[in-house]
Amino acid sequence: MPRGASLTRVKRVLVLGSTGSIGTQALEVIEGSPDLELAGLSANTDREQLLEQARRFGLDRVALAAADTADGDGIEVLGGAEGLIQLVVESGCDLVLNGLVGSAGLGPTIAALGEGIDLALANKESLVVGGELVMALAEATGAQIIPVDSEHSALYQLVNAEERPGSIDRLVLTASGGPFRGRTDLSGVTVDEALAHPTWNMGGKITVDSATLMNKGLEVIEAHHLFGVSYDHIDVVVHPQSIVHSLIDLNDGATLAHLGHPDMRVPISYALHHPERADVPVERLDLATVGSLTFEPPDPATFACLRLAYDAGRAGGTAPCVLNAANEVAVHHFLEGQLAFDAIPRVIEQTLEAMPAQPVGHFSDLYRADEQARELARSVTA
Ligand code: MG
Fold first, then answer.
1. What pLDDT is attached to residue 196?
2. What residues of the chain score a pLDDT lower than 50?
3. DSSP code, position 276
4. CA of 206 to the centre of ligand 1 (A)
5. Structural domain span for residue 231
6. Which of 118, 148, 178 is the last residue of a domain?
7. 257 in a structural domain
8. How many angstroms separate the alpha carbon of residue 264 from the centre of ligand 1?
9. Å from CA of 1 to ligand 1 middle
10. How far is the CA of 215 from the centre of ligand 1 (A)?
11. Triad 259, 265, 269: Cα angle to 5°
12. The CATH number of the domain where 144 resides is what?
């Protein structure tokens, strides 16, 4: 399609996970963009908010992952994992925004890419769990994956601006460090303390992942697959102000960085409008007002999850899937008050030790490993 043609055409966007933090901000971006139109919505359990959103956007069909599929006010409600896939395949959309939480996001990712539909990916677990197979599927159907994660959106823009692929030496992801930055003892941490993120406003699961640094570990694996860079060339630097979103080092000694105030509407808007850019009503960056930006190395001794993620990424095969499943179980138990915060990495490590990496030939290998890892992790937490 010639570049000009995309300007005159409205892009139809399907938003999965529409009641979550990414989903609600995506709807805000779509409402403010005449060139974007909402093609459909899905939510996990919040039926009332989902129906309210459908009425607001004049939709007659939605999907709800929870079992309650009784239609509401003439709005058809598709149910369960199959309903979600049906919504993706039948919506006639140009772009799927996958804002689901956890490995539950893998199915819709496969469905969208398999249909050749471009994917705005906020569900990092799709790549953590299914990395090689997901990238190969996109390659085969020609669908594009545009990352929504702020660090990966930054890297995507930096990497794509550099036309000689061999010139990139290193990717550097920034991490806020979470609420426990600088601490060396994480015993006795409460749920409320773990949910108090200093710079980003996000959902519960990812906020706990940010506090353990597992979120950064998952992002390292995500970056490895998205950009085809080996783990030895992906680094993490702690940057508490969250103004620099990521950097790339080039072979001539230059380093390029992507900056802005932390606001997810920016990477969401970038992914939804790509390859165009649209106005976003966010605070502009004034470095003189910010004053200083600080950086420090991560502390892998206290935050073991980051090390575990690198190890699982390097082991490859089923290991990142096992890492992710065990982490989802451990974080769930922590949020329910059944597991200590500093026991989260122990649960993950024991699960990984019990399930050494196996090669992955098909998505079914991943679903089996995910299920087995969850069972093991539950028995370890019990
Ligand atoms: Mg991120």
1. 87
2. 1-6
3. S
4. 9
5. 163-262+294-315
6. 148
7. yes
8. 9
9. 32
10. 7
11. 95
12. 3.40.50.720
Closest CA to 62 of 78, 46, 49, 48: 78
| 200 C-alpha to ligand 1 centroid (Å) | 9
What is the model's pLDDT at position 353? 98
CA-CA-CA-CA torsion for 357, 359, 361, 362, nearest 10 degrees?
Answer: -10
On whether the pTM is more than 0.90, the answer is yes
How far is Cα 143 from Cα 119, in angstroms, rounded to an integer?
7
Order of strands across the sheet that contains 76-79: 76-79, 61-64, 36-43, 11-16, 95-98, 118-121, 145-147
Q: Is residue 137 part of a domain?
A: yes
In 3D space, the residue among 321, 314, 323, 317 whose CA is nearest the CA of residue 353 turns out to be 323
Give me the pLDDT at residue 2, please. 47
CB neighbour burial string for 149-179, b if at least 16 within 10 angstroms, e if fewer: bbbbbbbbbbbeeeeeeeebeebbbbbbbbb
CA 214 – CA 331 distance, rounded (Å): 10
Residues 203 and 131 in one domain: no
Distance 4 CA to ligand 1 centre (A): 32
Per-residue pLDDT tens over the stretch 303-339:
999 999 999 999 999 999 999 999 999 999 999 999 9
**CA 218 to ligand 1 centroid distance, Å:** 9
Residue 30 corresponds to which tokens in the numbers above? 């779509």
Q: Are residues 16 and 130 in the same domain?
A: yes
Ligand 1: centre distance to CA 150 (Å): 5
Tell me which residue of 185, 138, 49, 134 sits closest to 363, measured CA to CA.
134
- Tell me what pLDDT residue 1 has: 43
* CB atoms near residue 247 (< 10 Å): 22
Q: How far is the CA of 157 from the centre of ligand 1 (A)?
A: 15
